[in-house]
Amino acid sequence: MATTLLVLLLIAIVVVFSVKNIRMQLITRPVFSFFKKVLPPLSNTEKEAMEAGDVWWEGELFRGKPNWQVLHSYGKPTLSSEEQEFIDNQVMTALTMIDDYNIVNDRKDLPPELWEYFKKEGFFALIIPKKYGGKAFSAYANSTIVSKIASRSVSAAVTVMVPNSLGPGELLTHYGTSEQKDYWLPQLADGRAIPCFALTGPEAGSDAGAIPDAGIVCRQEFNGVDTLGLKLNWDKRYITLAPVANVLGLAFQMYDPDGLLGDIKHIGITCALIPTDHDGVEIGSRHNPLNMAFMNGTTRGRDVFIPLDWIIGGSQYAGRGWRMLVECLSAGRGISLPALSTASGHMATKTTTAYSAVRQQFGLDIGKFEGVQEALARVIANTYQLEAARRLTATGIDLKVKPSVVTAIAKYHMTELGRKVIDDAMDIQSGKGIQLGPKNYLGHGYMALPISITVEGANILTRSLMIFGQGATRCHPYVLAEMEAAGMEDTSAGLERFDALLLGHIGYASRNAFSALGNALTGSRFAQSPVSGETKQYYKDMTRLSAGLALITDVSMLILGGDLKRKEMLSARMGDVLSQLYLASATLKLFEDNGRQFDDLPAVRHVMATRLHLAAKALDEAIRNFPNRGVALLLRALIFPLGNRFKDASDKLSIELAEAMSQPGPARDRLTFLCPDFEGDTGGIAEVENAFIAKHACKSLYKKLKSAQKEGSLSAKLQPLALFDAALEISLITDEEHQKLVKADELRLAAIAVDEFDKL
Fold first, then answer.
1. How confident is the model at residue 6 (pLDDT cuts 50, 70, 90)?
2. pTM for the whole structure
3. Distance between CA atoms of residues 365 and 736, nearest Å
4. Confidence check: pLDDT of 472 > 60
5. Does residue 51 carry a catalytic annotation?
6. Residue 232 in contact with residue 213, Cβ under 8 Å?
7. Does the keyword Flavoprotein apply (predicted)?
8. How far is CA 678 from the centre of its chain?
9. What's the burial of 492, exposed, middle or buried (CB within 10 Å: 0-12/13-18/19+)?
10. What angle do CA 533, 406, 596 make, to 5 degrees?
11. Which of 407, 489, 523, 685 has the lowest tally of Cβ within 10 angstroms?
12. With 60 as the cut, is the pLDDT of residue 304 above it?
């Protein structure tokens, strides 16, 4: 009897789903009505942001079954011979001209010779096409150049980065008219035109779509001719390079109250390019962004008239500024601030591994203490993660996609990782990090960190609104199309379209539910991996978590509908799952790109344990805080039926990583190359690195001295110089070895010294 009922039930289900008329009446039409009711309302700016940009690797991670071969197919980012030559010559020369202490504390500006060098050598033209005198460098080269400069000076790096990020150069390259490109791009390329872009104002920060600045279409005499144009009023702040700019990119709301262009009164956000010496343009005073020396300030305008052809792209681009900005920001946001953060990691890893090897307390190198090793391991692992994310994100941009979700992930998580790296480095280097002066290489970076956190979309809102809010809809294989079907004016056509999508969506959701449960029960044993060896399990575990993310996303959209937008803490946690999976993907990709180097494994193990732990933790917390408790119990049963067993990096992994990187070698070189050495450098970074190298070269001698102390032939209480002399007296070491030890100790003392001033 039970078997018969089961068979009848299965037949009924098959009939309902396979017979279109029955399916439409019993399933599609009710679901369609429900979907239209719970559909989250989108403002015009949200809709434009949703449609701007492309879905890239994050789409695979969001769908529950990543195709890892796709990740490996992206290729390894490389520099062209021209890019490498520029880095080896112009960039290295620029580094020799940078004295960050002087820039920040004395000049409050770059020295004139550095400004001139940046202009003359094309540092402001990295993204401008060659036909206009630019470099046309790749995103990877752009990132590498900014990172190397940032390893020595945040102020100098920001000065270079801004013209090559969101601003007139990028907007003109993508959208400018032929006349605008021919006039402006050569001037931007050779430094005659210094650009800034004014978007943020007192009433519009992260909500850039709400800018109150207005341009009213009108007619006015211009250069003696009656001209159709715009009368502009604006008040902008936090505008980098504004105090020295001679060309201003401006975003404003465009209105046509008299219908001079057509029937539309509110045309929308528009971007224009205006010389700063134009009548009515005011470049205000400087801001002081946490005492950094890069130029940042205000600009205002009162009844400033410009012709319509000053709109970037011409009058046909009127009202299209928001989409232009979102698309360009998706590239610049993935290059500039991540480059600064990665530079912080490389510099912190280089100096902190060195400092912990030359600084001694209680008769031991501080790098031997487990408390220090725990923090040092985080510095190294987070730097590996930063470098991995920098490369993968630049790869996407160089593939000519506009990965808006990926770049939001990169901006938020990489700036946060940069903050953690510098915090840990400061804890380890202690007094060395807080005493400002020419020897201090951490202090200015530490002071500047909150700037990256607040700009190009404040981090809190990037995490809670952008990553999941945009990613869930754009990356989902069905939801965006279903939203479009639900929004069709022809309801019958919309219903037909929705019916075609619904079956696929049901199958997709069912697959993810079974995948999440099956992988949880089997430890992901049967999930696919593109590689063998030690990293094999990481891919399997990420597939499991991807299925869990896809499942909870579908359930959240079904249960919460439009309310999901307002559940920011919940959506932020689900965004964290996607972000951690993206960062973990980047880590595994870097390991492959480096040729699966054995000495990279300690860093990879630490990073992957951390990423998987954080992804699972975010997923677990999203379930725990899900508003519907019954649904939460079901999600837990499917995703974590045996509990959350993903653990953070162990003490053993931390000790292994800290010890592996506390000596010179290829693995350390790969994680510090963005903080390069150059001939004649006498700054604090060079001092601590030289001491580190010299001390390591004496490793066998120190071991010999330690053995003699244990045996009693040398006193255990002697200070270094007295110890070396005593060892020489008993012929334990030669004169040459004595000199080598004395020199190493001189370098050690110079490295741990801090600056002193007669007066401040």
1. very low
2. 0.93
3. 24
4. yes
5. no
6. yes
7. yes
8. 28
9. exposed
10. 20
11. 489
12. yes
Coil, strand or helix at 755: coil
- The three-state (H, E, C) secondary structure of 244-276, written as one string: HCCEEEEEEEEECCCCCCCCCCEEEEEEEEEEC
Record the tokens describing residue 427, joined without a space.
């804890």
Cα 320 to Cα 85: distance, rounded to the nearest angstrom = 39
User: Rounded to the nearest 10 degrees, how much is the dihedral formed by the CA atoms of 701, 707, 709, 714?
Assistant: -60
How large is the average pLDDT for residues 139-161?
97
Mean residue pLDDT of the chain comes to: 90
Cα(271)–Cα(251) distance, integer angstroms: 5
Q: Is 271 helix (H, G, I), strand (E, B) or coil?
A: strand
Of 74, 747, 1, the C-alpha closest to 400 is 74
Please say if the pLDDT value at position 619 is more than 70.
Answer: yes
The candidate with the shortest Cα–Cα distance to 720, out of 735, 700, 697, 701, is 701
Neighbouring C-alpha atoms within 13 Å toward the C-beta of 76:
11
What pLDDT does residue 755 have? 93
Cα 675 to chain centroid, rounded: 19
Lowest-confidence pick of 80-89, 448-457, 703-712, 738-747: 448-457
- Residue 36 reports pLDDT greater than 80: no
| Distance separating alpha carbons of residues 33 and 137, to the nearest angstrom | 51
Determine how many CB atoms are found less than 10 A away from the CB of residue 647.
11
542, containing H or E segment: helix 536-560
Q: Which two tokens stand for residue 164?
A: 């090559």
Tell me the DSSP string of 131-188: GGT-----HHHHHHHHHHHHTT-HHHHHHHHGGGSTTHHHHHHHH--HHHHHHHHHHH
Going by C-beta distance under 8 Å and a sequence separation of 6 or more, which residues neighbour residue 485?
494, 495, 497, 498, 501
The SS3 assignment for 648 reads: coil
Q: What angle do CA 224, 260, 306 make, to 5 degrees?
A: 40
Q: How confident is the model at residue 409 (pLDDT cuts 50, 70, 90)?
A: very high
- Whose tokens are 């959209």? That residue is 557
Nearest C-alpha neighbor of 269 from the set 52, 35, 512:
52
Q: How far apart are CA 237 and CA 299, in angstroms?
A: 7
- 239 forms beta bridges with 297
Structure tokens at 404: 């808006």
Give the amino acid at 273.
L
Q: Give pLDDT tens digits for 217-250.
A: 999 999 999 999 999 999 999 999 999 999 999 9
| Tokens 């500047």 found at | 448
3-state secondary structure of 228: strand
Structure tokens given for 606: 């630490």
Written in H, E and C, the secondary structure of 307-352 is EHHHECCCHHHCCCHHHHHHHHHHHHHHHHHHHHHHHHHHHHHHHH
> Which residues are CB-contacts of 734 (< 8 A; sequence separation ≥ 6)?
728
Place of tokens 């960039």: 91
The catalytically annotated residue of 60, 456, 482, 689 is 456
Residues ≥6 apart with Cβ < 8 Å to 242: 196, 198, 236, 248, 283, 284, 295, 296, 297, 298, 299
Question: Taking a C-beta distance cutoff of 8 angstroms, is the pair 411, 606 a contact?
Answer: no
CA angle 143, 146, 150 (to 5 degrees): 130
Q: Range with the lowest mean pLDDT among 30-44, 248-262, 374-388, 717-731?
A: 30-44
One-letter amino acid identity for 473? T
d(CA 715, CA 722): 10
- Per-residue pLDDT of 318-371, as tens digits, reads 999 888 887 777 677 889 999 999 999 999 999 999 999 999 998 889 999 999
Q: Considering only CA atoms, which of 109, 744, 651, 108 is closest in space to residue 376?
A: 651
Spatial distance between the Cα atoms of 633 and 636, rounded to a whole number of angstroms: 5
